[in-house]
Amino acid sequence: MSDFSPILRGVTVGTNLNGMVYMLEVFQLVSYLRHYWKRDGYLIKGVVLLCFVIDTICTIAIFAWAYIDGVIHWGQVEYLSRQFWPTPTWVFCTTFVGAIVQSFLIYRYYLLSSQRIMSCILAIFMFGGLVGGFLLGIFNITFVSYADREKPKIISMIWLISSSTADVLIAVSLVLALSRVSAVTTIRRTKLLLSKLIIVSIQSGAVTTILALLLLTFYLASPTTNDPAIFGFILGRAYTITMLFNLNIRRSLETTCTVCGMNTLGGAASAATKVGMSNIIHGEVDHAASGLHPQELGLPQLDVNGTIPLEDAHSFGSRSSLRASKAPELV
């Protein structure tokens, strides 16, 4: 057992963790389908389904990896010294899910802040992680021996460091954008919701960043073993779960504000006739109380109808509108 335990222990532990995290993803998906599927637009629905399908393929590959190595070829040291189709499948799936979720967050950040330069910087790091992961997957297809695992260290570092940097910068950018809105509003309930969204943004970025850095650390420490799989197998699921969590958290945030309406352009009936505090949850930000022009907050100009399309920042709401309310309505 001592000859191949470094190959099996990481796969065994990682597979069990992935199974548990995948079930958590399923629960989050069911909750989303029940409460927000009819409300959200096609873009959000497409991203959710695409990430779940990729995660399902990745989970199948991970369980196949554990079954092939731990059952079918148990004890066959020569076979276990090589890696087969589950390895590049896991790399590709994790890379693509991370890039999809990051792209979606960058898009949301841009719609919230209109900061083109910062959005481009975020996209560069996201693209760096995508390229690094794709090259690593190609390498695993070309070189199947575990003895060759030390060769793609630079590629692995590009993949994981770029992805981690993108996660951190996205979280920081969203926090700053939400903080700017919070600084100019005088409505207590709005500040409360913004504070919760800021906390969610920090938590979401921290989870995937920590997992990616742990994966990189274990890989650099023991590149010829599968110990990094303990953290690597659940990385893709972590991206999707954070996205689904931010989608589903709207329900608890909405109950915090009993007078908030929701103005969606995605197909659900609008409840925007309710007046009160700004509906930050779904991207509706009231600037009348602040006395500031929307452009001073880094937000786009209102059109002749008094509304502009705006996606919610990090709660993944449906397509909403930025509405300038009259001051007397702000109670």
From TrEMBL:
Keywords attached to this entry: Membrane, Transmembrane, Transmembrane helix
InterPro entries in alphabetical order: DUF6534
Membrane-spanning segments: 6-30, 42-68, 88-107, 119-142, 154-176, 197-222, 228-247
Protein's UniProt keywords contain Transmembrane: yes
This protein's record includes keyword Membrane: yes
Domain of life: Eukaryota
Pfam family, one: DUF6534
Domain DUF6534: 164-252
UniProt name for this protein: DUF6534 domain-containing protein
Natural source organism: Serendipita vermifera MAFF 305830
